[in-house]
Structures are given as C-alpha cells and as structure tokens.
Inverse folding.
C-alpha cells in the first residue's frame, strides 16, 4: 500500500527577509493516526528546519499549538490529518501580530489577563497552619467549566469583535474573571468590575458565539461573558437602589 | 535579530463574509432591522386608524398589496430566525440549576418556545379572528 500524503500550505514570515507573509507548500507522507502537529513536525524534522511554531504537550493541555487550519482556529495537536481533504492551509492565529511563521505576539493578551486579577482574592489571608479554604461540590460546580481554559487563544482568533477592536478584553480573560467572580472563596468581584464591566470589557461582546464554537476545552467563554453582563446590569441597578453600597 | 511583527489587515466591511458562522451572526443582527421596520409599519397603521376609516382602509390596502405582503413574509422569516437564534443561546446566558443540578439546555430552550407559543395563542384569542 502506498503511503498517503497531505499537502501543507503554511504561511511563512521571516521578519528579517520578508516584507509580508507568503505561503509555502510541503508534501508530507502521513499515518492514519497523525494529527496536524505531527505533519508540521515532519516538515521541521525532514523538509525545512527554518519553520518556526510553538508546541509542547501534544495532548491539548498546554495550549501552545493554536493555529488556523483551513480557516478554522484549532489546536494542531487536536485535529487529525485524515479529516482534511488532501490539503491543509496552516496559518498563525488571526487577530495577533505575526512574530515569525506560525508564532504570534501574545503580549496584549497577557496584559489583559493580568488586568482581570485571575486569581483568588481572599477575604482575609489565612495562615498556612489554619488549613485550606473549604468549598462544597455545589460551590465548585458553579465555576468549574471556566477553570478548564488553557489560554490557547483560539477564542481570540475566532472573535470578530476582537478583530475589529483589539482593546476588547476578550473571551478567555473575561471567562477567567467570571470564574473567580463565581468562586465562593473570592471577594475580588468589585475590584475586577473596573475592567470586566467596562465598555472594552463584557459590553464590547455582541455574542457572536464563535469563541465557544472553537474552544477545544468546552469552556464556553460566550456563556461566561453573557452571565457577567447580567451580573453587571444587576450591579448597576442596585447602585441606584442602594447607593450606600456604591464603591 | 530584529523584531518586526507583521499585522495582517482585516477588511472592515467584508470580514463577516469569511465564515458561515459570521454570516449567520450578521443575519441574526440584521433581523432586528426588519422587525423594527415592521413595528414602524404597525405604528403608521395606528396613526392612519386615528385619522378615520378612509385613511385606515387605504393603509390596509397598501399593506396587503404585493409589496406589503412580500415585506410581511420577509419580516416574518427574519422574526422567526431572530427568535430561533436567541432561544438557542438562552442556556448560555441563563445557567439554571434545580436542587443543585444544572437544568439541561434543551429544556430551557423548549420552555422559551412554549412561552412564545402560549403568548401567541393568548394574543390570537384576545385580538385575532
């Protein structure tokens, strides 16, 4: 049996040589159980050592190999070659500047993520000797799905609102903010509201829902953002009813 | 080694044609336009009613003419699509729980359709025939 091949059409960009990115084609023999990342690794190992891309775990946990495959944001380690018809167009994530080849600049996202305080802000710091901050399964269940985010940025690549205005805090960062807001051990909600409840926060979202469609971990950031909108609207009206509670 | 990140330009007007899901999203957003125009037509009808029988009859005649009917059909298709798309996403915005368990999304969507049908039936009984 002759080995099957796939044609990879990879967007290349060398900041020291190229004025603009261009596509380069590679024909790769592949095995039935290969994912796109395997095919890209084959290119790097056997055909073209200059190809630059990010990857690490090869099992949809690290979130490093986010790319656009035939127009759809996906993890290269989470998409089987056999599911593509003969040719795969491989591009870096949309909506981020291209550093080189398939590597994008994600500094903007890192700044946004840290701006929403994606960690537990406890009511009072406990001493280690005082034990854990306890939580019931029901309390955990309120936010558990939002903890699965791996910061792969597929949602930012899919989001047309982020594409049109990159001041938008964006799906992953807002979903994580919501995750901590829902956490019974956390009191950071009002501190996060400056970012979350602002125009570049949840109100920039028009619920296209593309972020949730492409999320490889079923986090459903669109759901988090809509829930945060409802919470923010509640806060707004409560600030009129109970002005003494206003910050 | 010099850094020179390349920013790919996005078409500010044509971006939504690049993906079927963006087209579906734009259709959902545009549906509001047709519903809005339909409401304006209804308001014009009310205004004509206040001006007397002849004016109202003229309004009815133009509203039920070919152009009026064609618009009504298009507006109805968009209105149904509008309801459908928004009902589909209600479980995301309303994660309801019952006795500590998450209520399945299909149940929430079905409840919205049921409410929609009940209100429609009540309106039909009240002002229809």
């Amino acid at each position: 049996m002759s080995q099957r091949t796939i044609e990879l059409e990879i967007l290349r960009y060398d900041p020291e040589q190229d004025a603009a990115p261009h596509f380069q084609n590679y024909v790769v023999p592949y095995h039935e159980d290969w994912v796109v990342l395997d095919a890209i690794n084959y290119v790097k190992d056997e055909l073209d050592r200059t190809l630059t891309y990010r990857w690490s775990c090869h099992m949809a946990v690290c979130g490093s190999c986010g790319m656009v495959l035939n127009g759809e944001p996906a993890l290269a380690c989470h998409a089987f070659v056999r599911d593509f018809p003969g040719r795969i167009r491989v591009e870096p994530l949309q909506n981020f500047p291209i550093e080189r080849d398939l590597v994008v600049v994600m500094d903007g996202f890192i700044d946004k993520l840290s701006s929403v305080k994606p960690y537990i802000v406890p009511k009072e710091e406990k001493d280690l000797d005082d034990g854990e901050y306890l939580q019931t399964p029901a309390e955990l269940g309120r936010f558990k799905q939002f903890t699965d985010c791996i910061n792969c940025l597929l949602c930012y690549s899919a989001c047309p609102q982020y594409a049109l205005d990159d001041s938008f805090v964006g799906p992953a960062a807002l979903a994580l903010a919501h995750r901590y807001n829902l956490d019974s051990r956390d009191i950071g909600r009002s501190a996060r509201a400056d970012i979350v409840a602002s125009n570049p926060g949840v109100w920039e979202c028009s619920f296209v829902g593309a972020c949730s469609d492409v999320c490889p971990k079923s986090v459903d950031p669109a759901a988090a953002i809509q829930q945060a909108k409802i919470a923010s609207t509640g806060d707004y009206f409560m600030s009129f009813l109970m002005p003494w509670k206003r910050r | 080694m010099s850094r020179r990140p390349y920013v790919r330009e996005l078409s500010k007007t044509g971006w939504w044609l690049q993906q079927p899901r963006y087209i579906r999203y734009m259709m959902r957003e545009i549906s509001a336009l047709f519903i809005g125009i339909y409401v304006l037509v209804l308001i014009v009808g009310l205004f004509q009613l206040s001006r007397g029988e002849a004016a109202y009859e003229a309004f009815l005649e133009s509203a039920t003419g070919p152009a009026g009917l064609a618009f009504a059909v298009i507006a109805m298709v968009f209105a149904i699509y509008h309801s459908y798309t928004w009902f589909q996403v209600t479980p995301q915005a309303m994660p309801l729980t019952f006795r500590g368990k998450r209520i399945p999304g299909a149940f929430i969507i079905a409840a919205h359709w049921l409410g929609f049908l009940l209100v429609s039936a009540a309106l039909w009984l009240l002002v229809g025939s």
Summary: The two ends of chain A are 72 Å apart (CA to CA).
